[in-house]
Amino acid sequence: MKYLDEYRDGTLVRKVVDEIRDEISAPWTLMEICGGQTHSIVRSGLDRLLPTQLTLVHGPGCPVCVTPLETIDRSLAIASRPEVIFTSYGDMIRVPGSSTDLFSVRASGGDVRVVYSPLDALQLARENPDREVVFFAIGFETTAPPNAMSVLQASRLGVGNYSVLVSHACVPPAMRAILSWPGNLVQAFLAAGHVCTVMGYWEYPPIAEEFSVPIVVTGFEPLDLARGISAAVRQLEEGRTQAENAYPRAVTFEGNRPAQALISQVFETCDRKWRGIGEIPESGLRLREEYADFDAEKKFDVGSLTTEESSVCIAGEILQGRKKPADCPVFGETCTPEHPLGATMVSSEGACAAYYRYGRDS
Amino acid sequence: MNEKPTGGPELSCPLPLPHHDRIVLGHGSGGKLTGELIEHLFYPALDNPVLLRGDDAAVPPIEEVMEEGDSLAVSTDAHIVQPLFFPGGDIGRLAICGTVNDLAMVGAQPLWITASFILEEGLSYEDLERVVQSMRDAADEAGITVIAGDTKVVEHGQADGLYISTTGVGRIPAGRETSGRNARPGDTVLLSGTIGDHGIAVLVARGELAFETEITSDTTPLSSLVEAIYSTGAEIHTLRDPTRGGVAASLNEIARQSGIAIFLEEDRIPVRDEVQGACELLGFDPLHIANEGKLVAFVPQESASDVVESMRKHEYGREACIIGRVESDPEERVLMETGIGGTRIVDMPAGELLPRIC
């Protein structure tokens, strides 16, 4: 398949892996930010081809995984209301809240629907004027523009029965938080290519400089990942610490300016809790005051709902790159994709799900 | 019929409407309307002497078809699909092929099939006619006869248009020993063609995705392809049609049933570009997507090329190929050598397939 097969070409990938092997002289620890990258690495088996001196740790870039438990509980409370059609991307449907999940809410009579875009949810609101349609607006800078667009459209069209439950997170503050932790192991980042198609990588040079860490914008196919890893290793070996673009076919330094403008028009930054990690200052997005009418948290008054995490799940340490899924005592035992105890086992981007599905024995 | 009778309308009873355009509850009442449905719709479409006897149970001529040493295979399957009509098939064709294929996977030649229908009040009569005619066409192609049936009607909103449950009976000729338990180390794993066509065709036909494709479902009866496979004289250890859960689920089941490990080679598994593209967009693995006209076969290595050759000569096996091998392994599992030379586990899909966020 064009534009795909080329980047999954075994000969090309092995050539880059050989270059990495020739170049590497010391043990290095890299973090791939995005859960999509984690899945691609394990699914393609790239992790088993890389030299053993190289350690890949998995970052917090799984939007489903870092959505706070209380936000999920709020979604469940809203979805259970009879007047509500609750819409969400597919991944969120299976994520466990403190006592149930959206699947079970649907089984108990809640109107929970999977949509492929927030604009589909908005359309649903226009077609069902007597119902309240709520969209679970989660994700990083990648999903923020379409989510913002849906609110903007609802506002322009005067669709009063549409609202969004917002749980947006931003990547650069999380990178700063990881680098600031005592005992941080990460020596270089593979930045998330999808986020950078929207945001560009103008936010990264200051981080690379301040923390002396190479940051390489990296794509998602095996060859993209091998090239990103190779660029990061080269920087580490040469003692450079720069923001570099190894995904130029999709990412520019500036990024998508109209999309960035749309985000700032509808959202403003706020402090935000990351599931398993805790609060990171200025790392979230919330609706600006002028769009408060579209804020489901206010509309359904669920803002005060708070909850505690399960004590056995080590998702937090995994999301911080401190532990690997196999270090968890319940991994693959009581915690499986069918019965997940934490979000990292649920999402198609969660590190635990990736290890369980594609490489359980490693 | 809609005209009011003349001569003192206040004294006359209005005649009931004939209800020929939509299914109403009365069609499942067992009374006149049910009789009409059977006489005018089911009998003409499915016409055969065993069915037309009209008794409470069908009495098929079993003595005419069974020979010494043969055994009987029975399979039952419920069919639900939305939309009822999709590119490459419909619920009627699916209801025949699903059961015929299950029979064929144990080496059985299809003989007779029964069908029970749950109809939702309001279903269009014309749609039901199309579905039943499609069942007849698929049954003729598969060489199976619909010999008994039943119809119930439920209130509007209590079913999704139409559900069909079918039960099929087939004859396993003496000497065929094909089972999910018979795969063994050294076997070669074969696949009859491209994977994921049905699942993606139906998903796209629902119209919920913001893209369109030319993919059509592969819904087909596989019995003649299976006969072509047996005609090579090879020992056919295992056959399975990878429907729900896709090839990944079928192979994991076989690995567990036979106590073996299966090694696949990703580059050998045929996937259409349109299916691969849809899977990339939605975050699905083609190995998890349903098929309705494909089979996997486990045969001894020395027979593999003969069997592939026999499949390729058949219209439903043109793209047949070798996709892997069986090895003995203490862990009953499915592994795959990836396109770039790595290895990964191929697991069962976990519940409903959910499109990913980004």
Percent strand of chain B: 15-25%
Beta-strand residue fraction of chain A: 15-25%
Number of helices of chain B: 10
Largest beta-sheet details of chain A = 6 strands, mixed
Description:
Chain A has three domains: 5-62 and 171-245, HypD, alpha/beta domain 1 (Rossmann fold), CATH 3.40.50.11750; 65-164 and 255-299, 3-Layer(aba) Sandwich (Rossmann fold); 315-356, no CATH class. Chain A is built from 15 helices and eleven strands. Chain A has helices at 10-23, 35-44, 63-66, 69-79, 102-107, 118-127, 144-157, 171-180, 193-199, 204-211, 222-238, 257-266, 296-299, 315-319, 351-358, and strands at 28-34, 54-61, 84-88, 111-114, 132-139, 162-169, 188-192, 215-218, 243-245, 267-274, 278-287. In chain A, α11 links the parallel β8 (215-218) and β9 (243-245). In chain A, α1 runs parallel beside α11, α2 packs parallel to α15 (351-358) and α7 (144-157) crosses α12. Chain A is globular, with a radius of gyration of 20 Å. The two termini of chain A are 30 Å apart. The model of chain A has no long low-confidence stretch (mean pLDDT 92). Chain B has two domains: 25-172, 2-Layer Sandwich (60s Ribosomal Protein L30, Chain: A); 187-345, Alpha-Beta Complex (Phosphoribosyl-aminoimidazole Synthetase, Chain A, domain 2). Helices cover 29% and strands 22% of the residues of chain B. The chains are: A alpha/beta (362), B alpha+beta (358). At the A-B interface, α1, α2 and α15 of A face α9 and β13 of B.
